[in-house]
Amino acid sequence: MTQHSIPLGKIFGIPIGLDYSWFVIFALLTWMLAGSYYPEEFKHWSPLLYWLMGAVTAIMLFASVLLHELGHSVVALRYKIPVRSITLFIFGGVGQIGAEPPSAIAEFFIAIAGPLVSLVLAVFFYAVQSLVAGVEPLLGLAKYLAYINMALVLFNLIPGYPLDGGRVLRAIVWAITGNIDRSTLIAASVGRFFAFVLIFAGVWQMLNGNFGGLWVAFIGWFLDNAASVQIQQTMFRGLLTGHRVSQAMSTHCAIIPEDLTLQQLVDEQILGSGQRSFLVNRGEKTVGLITLHRITKVPRPEWATTSAARVMLPFEQLKCVDPDTELWSALQMMDRNGVNQMPVIRDQHVVGMLSREDAITFLRTLQEFGSSPAQQPKPGRS
């Protein structure tokens, strides 16, 4: 869950959040339904009923999107893949799955689960129309939800990453080639093609006076962005494959005593060196880690009287990594745990510190060599 989302609770242990951008699309969708869809379908309703049903329908649409994302997430959990959260936002919903699927067949079933849920919902809402035909508000709601869920199925099955159809394509190519990176690059490249088609179609609509094309172009831009990020991430993973944490970590670990005040730490260490994290020692024993982020949570007037020991994250709670861990796996671990640095531990002793900046610097070095990982020199970096 990001700091820009509102927690709504948990389903199957998965945190559900509402991004602030959701309120924008909720307002626009309610306005569109109340001002266009319902007045055209049912001409004798009161204005209040139009707006009420517009809001209810918008909420039910996002409930459908949530069920779609839960479809992906439940299947992922069946394959022992952690699901960090599901967030509803301006473009619908996104589930944060914490690891790559273990196989092509797992990827296929996880990807297809969402569209299957939407298809079931579309069939359900179509079937209940005859049961609620005498109650116009319910009939209008059922008709719209049947239509929109089927639209979600068709749109999501476009064979381009990051859409579900793109993930299905990735699973198929992965099964044929046995190479997840190659399949990801192919699916993401196809995704960029369809994104450009949407952008072109949206711009064409706007040039012809249909300003609804702006939304189509915006969706195309979003899909292109997501596909481009995936291509870049896959290339980075290829570069980092075979490299270990010991090659990228910093062996210089700034250590401070536990009784050092925050004011002293800022004045004597942070402002002079730019260091952002420090190991906290009690005598010769490391007992915790303090970061710039934790310091800034303390009101500045209290810095002079607050010791590092009071603010540090205790060593027992630290996410640590072995120096022989694959660098890409360590970065995924950082991402899953929402941390920017991890102590590197060997035989219960801190031998280094790995930060995101260390990994980025190492990656840039690999890119400058411009050769395969197997050809890279592998000394440690201090």
Structural features, described:
The chain is an alpha+beta fold. It folds into three domains: 5-157, no CATH class; 178-240; 245-375, Roll (CBS-domain). The protein is built from 13 helices and ten strands. The protein has helices at residues 22-41, 47-78, 104-128, 136-156, 164-177, 180-207, 213-240, 245-248, 262-273, 292-296, 308-311, 327-337, 356-369; strands at 5-11, 14-19, 83-89, 92-97, 255-257, 277-282, 285-291, 313-314, 341-346, 349-355. Strands 1-2-3-4 form a four-stranded mixed β-sheet. The chain has a four-stranded mixed β-sheet with strand order 5-6-7-8. Helix 5 packs antiparallel against helix 6 (180-207) and helix 6 (180-207) packs antiparallel against helix 7 (213-240). The longest helix is centred in the N-terminal third of the chain and has 32 residues, at 47-78. The radius of gyration is 26 Å and the shape is globular. It starts with a strand and ends in a 13-residue tail after the last helix.
Record the SSE blueprint.
Blueprint: E1 5-11, E2 14-19, H1 22-41, H2 47-78, E3 83-89, E4 92-97, H3 104-128, H4 136-156, H5 164-177, H6 180-207, H7 213-240, H8 245-248, E5 255-257, H9 262-273, E6 277-282, E7 285-291, H10 292-296, H11 308-311, E8 313-314, H12 327-337, E9 341-346, E10 349-355, H13 356-369
Parallel strand pairs: 2-3, 5-6
Antiparallel strand pairs: 1-2, 3-4, 6-7, 7-8, 9-10
Computed Rg: 26 Å
Structural class: alpha+beta
How many strands in all?
10
Which bin fits the share of residues in helices?
55-70%
Number of helices: 13
Main sheet: strands, sense, barrel = 4 strands, mixed
Strand order of the largest sheet: 1-2-3-4
What's the domain count?
Answer: 3
* N-to-C SSE string, H for helix and E for strand: EEHHEEHHHHHHEHEEHHEHEEH
* Poorly predicted tracts of residues: 372-382
Distance between the first and last residues' Cα: 34 Å
